[in-house]
C-alpha cells in the first residue's frame, strides 16, 4: 500500500498536480513534506498548516504533538496582538488556546494577561520577540526539532529514492509482459488502453513465428523484473541462485497457485530490511508454456509446500527416521531437581540459548526474573514499568492511568543471548540488553499493538537481528532491536495467537496462527501471505520446529477442549502424523515444546506427557511429584536435560535427567568455587542438586514433596553419601561492607538549609531524589544526562544537581503555629512526577514539581495529617492518615472527604493500596494492621503484629506492598514482618540481633521486591532477602559515614524504582547518600542458607474483627 502511494506521489509531482500531491500526503499519512510545511509556516497560512498536520497527528497524541500545536497557535496569537487586533487575539485565545488550560492552567493565565499589555514585549519572557518574519523562522526551527523527535513522524520525513517516472516504467514493463504472453504477438503492437489486458489480434494470414519478442521466462537474468520501487525489501538477484535455494525453502503450502489463498497486502516502511541477492522480487507468474524454462522462486517453493491437505486425517509415511539413536526413558528429564517460588503466577519461561541453567521467567504481575538454577538464586528482576510515557499511545496511557494489570505474555531470548524480549498483555514490548548475570539494561520500549501482544520471537532476516510480534489487532509486525518498524503484515481476520519465524538456507519466512484457526505464512516482502489453511481444532495453535529445523510440529486446542498434536509434511502441506493420548477435555490452551530431535512434551491434566517424535503413542508421563496446575507451562533447555514446568503455587519446578543433574552440579560448583578463597576451597564441597537444604520459599526444602533423590554425576549415590551431604552444607559467608572502597556512594550536594531528613523518595522516573526535612522544606536533586551518565538516571557514579526553578522558590510546607517537635511530616508523589503532596503538621499542600508553586491546600488541622497516599487508579483520590487515628478518603477535585475510616487507636503511620486485592492496608502507632475494601471502604479485618518478648507496641509501623501486590512488608523499630494480605495474616518476622541489634529506623523493598533495605539507629544498614528475611549483607557505618560521625545515623531509606541494587539514605544531619555495590560485585551478597536464617515463622492468631 505505502509503495503504491509513493509511486503515485512521484507521478503527481512530475505531472505538476501540486494540490493533489499534498492532499494525498495528508490523507495517506505516509510522507510528511517538510518543504511544503516550511512554506506554509513562513507564509503564516495557519489554517493550512494545522490542516496538513492533522493528517499525521492530533493535538492530544503525545507531548510532542501538543507542543507543536501550542507553538503554532501561540505564534498566531502573538501576531494578532502585534497588529493590535485584540478581537482576533481574543478569538484565538478562546477557540485555539483554551484547550491547553486543562494541561497547564498557569501558562494559560499568563498568556491571557498579555491582552492587558499595550505591547506584549513588556513581558520579560517576550522582550526579545522581533519582527514577524524572524519570529516565524525561529518558531519553525523549534517545530522541526519537535517533529523529528515525535515518534508519530518516524519514517515519514524522507521520501524514498526512486528513479524518475517509476510508475510509468512499471506500467510499460507490465505491457511488455502482456505482449510477450500473446499467442500471436505482433512486431509493432497497438496498445490503446490500460483498462484491460493487452492481446494482439489474430492475423488474417498464417501464424507468423514470434521472432521479435522472446518469452520472458526464457531469460536467465531477471533484469526484466526490477524490484517494486527503490526501497523494496528484495533487491534484484540472479534467478539461477534463487532456483538453487528454492528447494530448501520451508514453505509447505502452495494453494495460492490454484486460488486457494488470497494475497493480502503488507504495509512496508521505507526502512525495509535489505534481503540477500538470491531472493528476487516475487511476482505471480503465468503457467509456463511448453519448451519454456520456468525458473522457480521462493514463492513457488512456499506455495508448493503449503498445498492444503484434503482433511486432517492422518497421512502415514512408513519410512522411519533413519539412523536415529535408540530412545530411552533415561534421556527424559523426569525427576524433580528443585522447586522455586516466583511470587506470582508464571506466564512464560525461556532458557538462555547458551547457558543451560539460566532461566528467564515472566509473571502475571508484569515482572520478569532471571534465575540461576544451579545457585537457586534470582540474579535480576524487573517489575513492569513504563519507561517513556511520552512515546505511549493515548489508549495505552489511559490503561496505565487506570492501573490496568500488565501481565507478561511471552519472554524470549535472542539467538545470541544478548537480548531479551518481553511481550505484555496490553500494547507493549520491552527489549533488554543482556551482557552478564547482573547486567540487564533497558534497550527499547515499543507500543507495538492495539490490545494484547500475543507472541514475540527473534529472527535474523539477512543477518539483521529483528523482533517479530503479533497481537489482538490481527497484525504481525517486524521491528529492529532499536524499536523501528520494518514490516506490518495484514491478512488475518482474527487476533493473531502465535508466530514461528524460521529459515531454510537463505530463505526467511514466518508462520502465524490466529484464534480462528487460520495458519498463514509470510516472506519478508510486500506480497502478502502465501497460505490460508485451517489448523486442527480450528482455534489456538502453536507451531514449532525440531532443534535441527527439519521437522515441523503444531499443538492446538479446540474450543471444546480437544487437543491436537501433529507433525506436518512440509513437502506436501499435509498432516504427517497425529499423536494420541489426550483423553480429558480441559478449558484453556495447552503448551508444548520439543527436545532436540527426539521428544515432544505437552502440559495437560496436571502432568507432563512425552512422545517419541516417531511414535504417535504416549511414551511416558509425569506429575513432577505433584503441585502442577491443570495446564502447566513448560520449556526445555537447549540440551534437553532440564525441563522447567510451572506449579500451582506461583512457582516452577525444574525436572532433570542424569545429565541435567550433572549440569546443575557443575554450574553450582563453579559458582561456589569463585566465592571461596584458595585457603578454604579444598575444605568444602559443593552439594549436588537435590541435597536436603531447608529453606523458606525459594529452595528445595528437606520435607518438600518435590525433593528429588540426591544424585552425584548422574548416578544415585548410596545412602551414606546423602548423610554426608546433609552434614556439609553449602559454604556461605555474610557479606560485610566495612570500608568505603567496598561500595560505590555519592553524597548529594548540600543546599545550605539542611535539617534532618524525615522522608525520602526517588522520583518515579528514577532520575531524581526528593527529601522532606524536619522543618517542612522539600529539596529536589536531579541527575543530568551526559557522557559520564548516559542514562540520566540516579547513580552513585555521578553527583546530581540541586534543582530549583528560576524563580528561586522553595517547596515549603505551611508550618505556622506548628510545634515541629511534635509534627509527623508526610509526603506522596504523583505517578507522573508532576505533583508532590506533603504536610508538616499544618495544611496539606499540593506542589507543582516544575515551578514549586503551591497549587492548592486542604485538610487544615486539627487534626494534622500524618500519612498520605494517592489512590492507584485515580490521582484525584487521596488517602490521608490523621493524628487522631482516622483515615480520610479525600477527593481533591471536589474538595470533599468521601469517607472517614475508623479502626485504629493511635495516629496513622502507613498506608498502602493493592489493586490486585482491591484493598487499602493501614498501619498506626498501635502496631495494628487494618485491611479495608477500596470498593466500600469497609474494614475487613485487623491484625496485631506480635511484639518481641519485653517490647511494648509503641512507635511507628510502616507498610509497603511487594510487587506481587499480595505480600506486605511491615516495619517497626522492633522487627521486620511479612504479611500475606490475601489471608490477612503475618507469616514471617525478623527481630534485631547480633551485629544488627539496634532499633530499626526504616526499611523498604527494592524495586523488584527481592531485597529489603533496612537502616538502624546505630548507623548499620542491613540488606535482607525478601523471601526469607535472611541477612545477605551488612553495611557498617564506617563504610559510608565520616570517621568522626558525631552521632550521625540514617533515619530513612528509599529504593531506586528501576535499579534493584541501588538505594539512598537520609541522615539526621540533613545529608542524603546514594549507595550501590561495586561494579565487580554487582549485588549485595548471596542468598543465605536456611541454617543462617534466624527468623520466626508466624501464623498470627491475635486478630481482631
Descriptive account of the structure:
The chain is an alpha+beta fold and 1105 residues long. Helices cover 15% and strands 31% of the residues. Strands 1-14-13-12-11 form a five-stranded antiparallel beta sheet, with no helix packed on it. Strands 30-56-55-54-53 form a five-stranded mixed beta sheet, with no helix packed on it. Helix 3 (34-42) runs antiparallel to helix 8 and helix 10 packs parallel to helix 11. It is flat and about 110 Å long. Residues 205-324, 671-730 and 1099-1105 have low confidence and may be disordered.
The low-pLDDT segments are 205-324, 671-730, 1099-1105
The shape, in one word, is: flat
Number of strands: 61
Structural class: alpha+beta
Which sheet architecture does the biggest sheet show?
5 strands, antiparallel
Task: List the defining traits of the structure above.
5-stranded mixed β-sheet; 15% helix; 1105 residues; flat; WD repeat; disordered C terminus; 15 helices; alpha+beta; 5-stranded antiparallel β-sheet
